[in-house]
Amino acid sequence: YFLLGLHKKSLIYKITSLLSLTITFSKSAYFAATLLISKIRIGKSIIIIFTMLSLIQIFIPKLNTGIYSIDSRSAMIAHFKNQSFKTLILGSGLGNYTVTLSTSLPGSMQTIGDLQPVHNTLLLLISELGVIATTAIIYLIHKNYHKKYYPLLLIVLITALFDHYWVTSHQNKLAIILCFALLKETGQAGS
Predict the structure, then answer these.
(1) Cβ neighbours of residue 55 under 8 Å, at least 6 residues apart?
(2) Which residues make Cβ contacts (< 8 Å) with residue 119, sequence separation at least 6?
(3) Neighbours of 153 (CB within 10 A)
(4) How far is CA 84 from CA 92, 101, 106, 115, 140, in A?
(5) Which of 19, 77, 129, 179 is a good FRET partner for 62, with 20 to 30 A between their CA atoms?
(6) Helix (H, G, I), strand (E, B) or coil at 88
(7) Are 152 and 179 in contact, with CB atoms under 8 Å apart?
(8) Distance CA 190, CA 75 (A)
(9) How many angstroms separate the Cα of 72 from the Cα of each of 63, 64, 66, 76?
(10) Is pTM beyond 0.90 here?
Protein backbone atom coordinates (compact mmCIF):
# COMPACT_ATOMS: atom_id res chain seq x y z
CA TYR A 1 0.00 0.00 0.00
CA PHE A 2 2.67 2.48 1.01
CA LEU A 3 5.08 1.18 -1.62
CA LEU A 4 2.80 1.82 -4.55
CA GLY A 5 2.31 5.54 -4.53
CA LEU A 6 -0.13 6.71 -1.88
CA HIS A 7 2.65 8.04 0.31
CA LYS A 8 5.78 9.65 -1.09
CA LYS A 9 8.70 7.98 0.62
CA SER A 10 12.44 7.72 0.00
CA LEU A 11 13.92 5.28 -2.47
CA ILE A 12 15.40 3.14 0.33
CA TYR A 13 11.93 2.81 1.88
CA LYS A 14 10.45 1.67 -1.44
CA ILE A 15 13.27 -0.83 -2.03
CA THR A 16 12.86 -2.24 1.48
CA SER A 17 9.11 -2.54 0.97
CA LEU A 18 9.55 -4.27 -2.37
CA LEU A 19 12.04 -6.75 -0.87
CA SER A 20 9.63 -7.41 2.02
CA LEU A 21 6.83 -8.13 -0.45
CA THR A 22 9.12 -10.46 -2.41
CA ILE A 23 10.07 -12.64 0.56
CA THR A 24 6.43 -13.22 1.55
CA PHE A 25 6.09 -15.65 -1.39
CA SER A 26 2.40 -14.68 -1.46
CA LYS A 27 1.09 -15.07 -5.00
CA SER A 28 -2.01 -13.06 -4.13
CA ALA A 29 0.13 -10.18 -2.81
CA TYR A 30 2.17 -10.27 -6.02
CA PHE A 31 -1.06 -10.20 -8.05
CA ALA A 32 -2.44 -7.24 -6.07
CA ALA A 33 0.85 -5.35 -6.40
CA THR A 34 0.89 -5.99 -10.15
CA LEU A 35 -2.65 -4.60 -10.49
CA LEU A 36 -1.68 -1.52 -8.50
CA ILE A 37 1.53 -0.92 -10.43
CA SER A 38 -0.31 -1.28 -13.75
CA LYS A 39 -2.77 1.39 -12.53
CA ILE A 40 -5.81 -0.66 -13.56
CA ARG A 41 -8.86 1.07 -12.13
CA ILE A 42 -11.87 -1.11 -11.49
CA GLY A 43 -13.54 1.30 -9.07
CA LYS A 44 -16.36 0.45 -6.72
CA SER A 45 -17.20 -2.66 -8.73
CA ILE A 46 -14.13 -4.36 -7.17
CA ILE A 47 -16.36 -5.22 -4.20
CA ILE A 48 -18.91 -6.97 -6.43
CA ILE A 49 -16.16 -8.67 -8.46
CA PHE A 50 -14.52 -9.96 -5.25
CA THR A 51 -17.84 -11.29 -3.97
CA MET A 52 -18.61 -13.05 -7.25
CA LEU A 53 -15.12 -14.58 -7.57
CA SER A 54 -15.36 -15.90 -4.01
CA LEU A 55 -18.78 -17.43 -4.55
CA ILE A 56 -17.82 -18.96 -7.91
CA GLN A 57 -15.16 -21.01 -6.11
CA ILE A 58 -17.94 -22.97 -4.39
CA PHE A 59 -19.07 -24.38 -7.73
CA ILE A 60 -15.66 -25.53 -8.96
CA PRO A 61 -15.36 -29.29 -8.45
CA LYS A 62 -12.57 -30.64 -6.23
CA LEU A 63 -9.34 -30.60 -8.23
CA ASN A 64 -6.50 -33.12 -8.26
CA THR A 65 -3.82 -31.30 -10.24
CA GLY A 66 -0.74 -32.57 -8.41
CA ILE A 67 0.05 -28.99 -7.35
CA TYR A 68 -0.17 -28.95 -3.56
CA SER A 69 -1.37 -25.35 -3.09
CA ILE A 70 -4.19 -25.78 -5.63
CA ASP A 71 -5.22 -29.24 -4.43
CA SER A 72 -5.22 -28.29 -0.73
CA ARG A 73 -7.27 -25.13 -1.36
CA SER A 74 -9.68 -27.17 -3.47
CA ALA A 75 -10.02 -29.71 -0.62
CA MET A 76 -10.63 -26.87 1.85
CA ILE A 77 -13.44 -25.50 -0.32
CA ALA A 78 -14.94 -29.03 -0.48
CA HIS A 79 -14.79 -29.16 3.36
CA PHE A 80 -16.41 -25.71 3.45
CA LYS A 81 -19.29 -26.95 1.28
CA ASN A 82 -19.83 -30.05 3.43
CA GLN A 83 -19.87 -28.18 6.72
CA SER A 84 -21.13 -24.67 6.05
CA PHE A 85 -24.45 -25.39 4.42
CA LYS A 86 -25.63 -26.75 7.79
CA THR A 87 -25.22 -23.30 9.39
CA LEU A 88 -25.59 -21.11 6.32
CA ILE A 89 -28.00 -18.48 7.70
CA LEU A 90 -26.46 -17.68 11.11
CA GLY A 91 -23.04 -19.34 10.87
CA SER A 92 -21.18 -21.51 13.33
CA GLY A 93 -19.80 -18.60 15.38
CA LEU A 94 -16.75 -16.41 14.96
CA GLY A 95 -13.58 -18.50 15.35
CA ASN A 96 -15.45 -21.82 15.27
CA TYR A 97 -14.63 -22.96 11.73
CA THR A 98 -11.87 -25.38 12.68
CA VAL A 99 -13.84 -26.62 15.70
CA THR A 100 -16.82 -27.57 13.56
CA LEU A 101 -14.47 -28.88 10.85
CA SER A 102 -12.90 -31.29 13.35
CA THR A 103 -16.32 -32.79 14.09
CA SER A 104 -17.15 -33.33 10.42
CA LEU A 105 -13.84 -34.78 9.16
CA PRO A 106 -13.04 -38.47 9.57
CA GLY A 107 -10.27 -39.18 12.09
CA SER A 108 -7.75 -40.01 9.35
CA MET A 109 -8.11 -36.48 7.91
CA GLN A 110 -7.65 -34.60 11.17
CA THR A 111 -4.08 -33.55 10.59
CA ILE A 112 -2.70 -30.05 11.08
CA GLY A 113 -2.74 -29.62 7.30
CA ASP A 114 -6.43 -30.49 7.07
CA LEU A 115 -7.67 -28.66 10.18
CA GLN A 116 -7.30 -25.11 8.96
CA PRO A 117 -9.76 -22.51 7.75
CA VAL A 118 -10.84 -22.30 4.14
CA HIS A 119 -8.38 -20.08 2.27
CA ASN A 120 -10.94 -17.48 1.24
CA THR A 121 -11.98 -14.74 3.66
CA LEU A 122 -15.52 -14.33 2.31
CA LEU A 123 -16.24 -18.06 2.51
CA LEU A 124 -14.79 -18.18 6.02
CA LEU A 125 -17.04 -15.28 7.07
CA ILE A 126 -20.07 -17.00 5.54
CA SER A 127 -19.23 -20.15 7.49
CA GLU A 128 -18.62 -18.39 10.81
CA LEU A 129 -21.06 -15.44 10.69
CA GLY A 130 -23.65 -16.73 8.25
CA VAL A 131 -25.08 -15.18 5.11
CA ILE A 132 -26.99 -12.42 6.92
CA ALA A 133 -24.01 -10.91 8.78
CA THR A 134 -21.64 -11.40 5.83
CA THR A 135 -24.08 -9.63 3.50
CA ALA A 136 -24.28 -6.76 5.99
CA ILE A 137 -20.47 -6.49 6.03
CA ILE A 138 -20.31 -6.39 2.21
CA TYR A 139 -23.06 -3.76 2.18
CA LEU A 140 -21.18 -1.59 4.69
CA ILE A 141 -17.95 -1.83 2.70
CA HIS A 142 -19.81 -0.94 -0.51
CA LYS A 143 -21.72 1.92 1.14
CA ASN A 144 -18.60 3.45 2.68
CA TYR A 145 -16.38 3.04 -0.38
CA HIS A 146 -14.26 6.03 -1.37
CA LYS A 147 -11.89 6.09 -4.37
CA LYS A 148 -9.04 7.56 -2.31
CA TYR A 149 -8.58 4.20 -0.57
CA TYR A 150 -9.08 2.06 -3.66
CA PRO A 151 -5.47 0.70 -3.60
CA LEU A 152 -5.84 -0.35 0.03
CA LEU A 153 -9.18 -2.03 -0.62
CA LEU A 154 -7.81 -3.75 -3.72
CA ILE A 155 -4.93 -5.25 -1.73
CA VAL A 156 -7.25 -6.49 1.02
CA LEU A 157 -9.81 -7.98 -1.37
CA ILE A 158 -7.33 -9.66 -3.73
CA THR A 159 -5.43 -11.29 -0.87
CA ALA A 160 -8.74 -12.22 0.80
CA LEU A 161 -9.65 -14.27 -2.28
CA PHE A 162 -6.80 -16.68 -1.61
CA ASP A 163 -6.25 -16.66 2.14
CA HIS A 164 -7.99 -16.32 5.50
CA TYR A 165 -5.55 -14.17 7.48
CA TRP A 166 -7.72 -11.03 7.39
CA VAL A 167 -10.00 -12.87 9.82
CA THR A 168 -7.65 -15.28 11.62
CA SER A 169 -4.45 -13.28 12.22
CA HIS A 170 -4.46 -10.83 15.14
CA GLN A 171 -2.22 -8.35 13.31
CA ASN A 172 -4.42 -8.43 10.25
CA LYS A 173 -7.55 -7.96 12.34
CA LEU A 174 -6.01 -4.76 13.68
CA ALA A 175 -5.01 -3.74 10.15
CA ILE A 176 -8.50 -4.39 8.78
CA ILE A 177 -10.05 -2.31 11.58
CA LEU A 178 -7.72 0.52 10.57
CA CYS A 179 -8.74 0.04 6.93
CA PHE A 180 -12.45 0.19 7.78
CA ALA A 181 -11.89 3.26 9.94
CA LEU A 182 -10.12 5.02 7.07
CA LEU A 183 -12.91 4.06 4.67
CA LYS A 184 -15.60 5.25 7.08
CA GLU A 185 -13.85 8.56 7.84
CA THR A 186 -13.41 9.25 4.13
CA GLY A 187 -17.03 8.33 3.38
CA GLN A 188 -18.30 10.87 5.94
CA ALA A 189 -15.92 13.58 4.76
CA GLY A 190 -17.19 13.23 1.20
CA SER A 191 -20.90 13.50 2.09
Answers:
(1) 122
(2) 73, 76, 162, 163, 164
(3) 21
(4) 8, 9, 16, 15, 23
(5) 129
(6) coil
(7) yes
(8) 44
(9) 9, 9, 10, 6
(10) no
Give the total residue count for the chain: 191
Alpha-carbon distance of 44 to 41, in angstroms, equals 9
**Per-residue pLDDT of the chain in tens (191 residues, 90 and over written 9):** 444 454 555 666 666 666 666 666 666 666 666 666 666 666 667 677 777 777 777 777 777 777 777 787 788 888 888 888 888 899 888 888 888 888 777 665 666 666 788 888 888 999 999 999 999 988 888 887 777 777 777 778 878 888 888 888 888 888 778 776 766 665 554 44
H or E stretch including 136?
Answer: helix 121-143
Query: Are 83 and 104 contacting, i.e. CB atoms less than 8 angstroms apart?
Result: yes
The crossing angle, in degrees rounded to 10, of helices 97-104 and 121-143 is 150
